[in-house]
Specification:
Elements: H1 2-5, E1 15-19, H2 25-32, E2 37-41, H3 46-61, E3 66-68, E4 74-75, H4 80-88, E5 97-105, E6 117-118, E7 122-123, H5 127-130, E8 134-137, E9 146-148, H6 149-155, H7 167-177, E10 181-192, E11 196-202, E12 205-211, H8 214-231, H9 235-255, H10 259-275
Parallel strand pairs: 1-2, 5-10
Antiparallel strand pairs: 3-9, 4-10, 5-9, 6-7, 8-10, 11-12
Helix pairs in contact: 8-9, 8-10, 9-10
């Protein structure tokens, strides 16, 4: 909240989605940040449902021209919004640019995680491309992105049935399929935590491992499998999915502190993704539903 209130380009409205919390968040917001709009949901509908609720209110009900989206683990610098808009230049006025995206950086390691391309699979952009002041991607994380209202009106809201993870990739691909562009503004960076990241060394190589709970591994595996199998069922995309899941499974076995449970949930996610079984199955700290 303090980071948003300190922006050099003031925000017209700050909206907090209280996603079914039971820890006094609503009372804290009312006491410390009375200028903030708080929308309290009756239950936890996940990051996907929270984003859908926020976009519905901000873009469709309040009709803000642009909606800046943040997870609870992202913190923008005081000039982030101004940098995002000025760095985009004329692209911000192009009606076919549906999203302006900064570059997320993990604060502790300094590692940047630029958006990626989609060519029936995940493609990391080359060094020459990501050095450009503005370049165009296909997939970006929701946190930090600035979404145009007209794009939301055209393609609808994020899929709440994804609950957690990959819902932003699905939304980006939906944007791209309707002819919208996703502009990445290289000069705009912001701090974004990617799980409980730890650094491991294998010989001369070092690897930053973002530790996820087993229930999150379920949703990552399930939603990726559904995304490819139901929406982009090409041979190339399926091969890219299999390679990505196998690679991630190997890294879980190498680095995860809860290997057995995480691999089990990954397998369950893969099965449910193939069957098209979406919705809320696992909540943090709960058993399956």
């Amino acid at each position: 909240m303090d980071a948003l209130l300190a922006q050099s380009r003031p925000l017209q409205e700050i909206i907090v989605i209280d996603n079914g919390s039971r820890d006094g968040t609503g009372a804290m917001l009312a006491a410390r940040y009375p200028q903030v709009t708080a929308l309290s949901l009756p239950q936890n509908v996940g990051a996907a449902g929270g984003w859908a609720a926020g976009l519905s209110y901000a873009a469709l009900e309040k009709r803000h021209d642009w909606v800046w989206n943040f997870d609870d683990d992202s913190v923008p610098g005081p000039g982030a919004l101004e940098s995002l808009l000025t760095g985009a230049g004329n692209h911000a006025n192009d009606p076919k640019v549906g999203m302006l995206v900064p570059v997320p950086v993990h604060k502790e390691t300094g590692k940047a995680f630029p958006p990626v391309l989609w060519r029936d699979g995940f493609v990391i952009p080359g060094a020459e491309m990501i050095r450009q002041p503005v370049w165009f991607a296909d997939l970006a994380v929701a946190s930090g992105c600035l979404v145009r209202r007209e794009a939301v009106e055209a393609i609808g809201l994020p899929r709440s049935d994804f609950f957690m993870d990959v819902f932003d990739f699905e939304y980006c691909l939906r944007l791209r399929s309707r002819g919208y562009k996703i502009a990445v503004v290289t000069q705009c960076e912001f701090s974004h935590e990617l799980g409980e990241t730890r650094t491991f060394r294998l010989g001369r190589l070092s690897y930053n491992w973002p530790e996820h709970a087993s229930w999150r591994e379920y949703y990552i595996s399930r939603n990726l499998t559904y995304l490819v199998g139901e929406l982009y069922p090409t041979r190339r995309a399926r091969f890219a999915l299999a390679r990505r899941l196998l690679r991630h499974g190997m890294l879980v076995l190498l680095f995860s502190g809860n290997k057995r449970e995480c691999v089990k949930r990954m397998f369950q996610g893969w099965l449910d993704g193939r069957r098209g079984r979406l919705g809320i199955r696992f909540l943090p700290g709960s058993k399956s539903r």
